[in-house]
Amino acid sequence: MPIRIVTDSTASLPPDIAADLDITVVPLHVQFGAETYRDGVDITTEEFYRRLQTSPVHPQTSQANPAEFAQIYAGIPGDDPIVSVHVSTDLSKTVESARQGAKQIEGREIAVLDSRLAAAALTFTVVAAARAARAGASVDDIRALVDDRAQRTHLLAVVTTLEYLKRGGRIGGAAAFVGSLLNFKPVIELRDGIVQPVTRVRTLNKAYAAIRSGVAERAPNGVESWAILHALAPDARDRMHREVAAGLDADGDKFDDLAVVPVIGAHTGPGTFGFAFVARP
């Protein structure tokens, strides 16, 4: 068996791809009051957003605990190394929890890596790591791959409000927008592992234009792979495909319909849409 790849549910991995590449996905937790759900296991994306918009209680999110990680690591057959690639440490304590869980497993090499990414941006890295593992890559090879992707992978998104990011404490540099968003739509990005502001615009036309120009600026040599993500916003998904993705000459992975999963959506809110991409070197 090759090196085994583990990630978490923030990676937005389609189940068929996870199964095909033998990637183990650890569900993070979403909590409405006293009720706790495992992301993608006990609650679907659609169920989550319906509840998010009607519940008087704002959901909290949390990482899987060390015991859960230990149980998952112990359940992976064989004794080949495990590489566990997770959401940015500036957004979640998942890496810390995974490392604590790994310490409970004796006699097996487990490398826990901070991707500095999240959501659809993490999708590319995890898929690339699994393919590299299948091709015979070493742990150090995959570590170098993850570091490289952290530098070349970008995520630009439009959120209808920063309120959810503010409540969840994940707002990062985008806090500069708070208090000045009346009739504006914030365009944000995941940069250096945290949420950062890009610009604020008044219309959707300008939001799409900001994403197009953001892609061109961040990928001057072109785009290797791309993904469209959205939180129950199919019209935005379709428009992103027409106005952003269709103009790109990408020969790598293309994901045209990735969900903003509950543990991310709790912070970005419904209606969010965005574009993730890997810039060519």
Structure summarized in a few sentences:
By secondary structure, this protein is of the alpha/beta class. The protein has 10 helices and 13 strands. It has a 6-stranded mixed β-sheet with strand order 10-9-8-13-11-12, sandwiched between helices.
Which key features would you list for this structure?
four-stranded parallel sheet; 13 strands; alpha/beta; globular; Hypothetical Protein Tm841, Chain: A,domain 3; 281 residues
Walk me through this protein's architecture.
The protein has 281 residues and is α/β, with parallel strands linked by helices. The protein has two domains: 4-151, 3-Layer(aba) Sandwich (Rossmann fold); 152-279, Hypothetical Protein Tm841, Chain: A,domain 3. It has ten helices and 13 strands. It has helices at residues 15-20, 45-54, 66-75, 94-102, 119-134, 139-152, 163-168, 204-218, 234-243, 262-268; strands at residues 4-8, 23-26, 29-32, 35-38, 60-62, 82-86, 110-114, 153-158, 185-191, 194-201, 223-230, 254-259, 273-279. Helix 4 (94-102) links the parallel strand 6 (82-86) and strand 7. It is globular and about 55 Å long.
